[in-house]
Amino acid sequence: MITHCFPLYNTLCDLGICLEGAAGDAVLAAGEVEARRIDRLLNRYSPVSALSRLSREYRPHVPYAVDGELWGVLAVCERFRQLTGGAFHMATGSISDLWDFGGTAPRRPPPEQLREQVDKVARCRIDMDREKKTISLSEPGILFDLGGAGKGYAVERVAALLQGSGASAGYM
Question: Is residue 51 part of a domain?
Answer without folding.
Answer: no
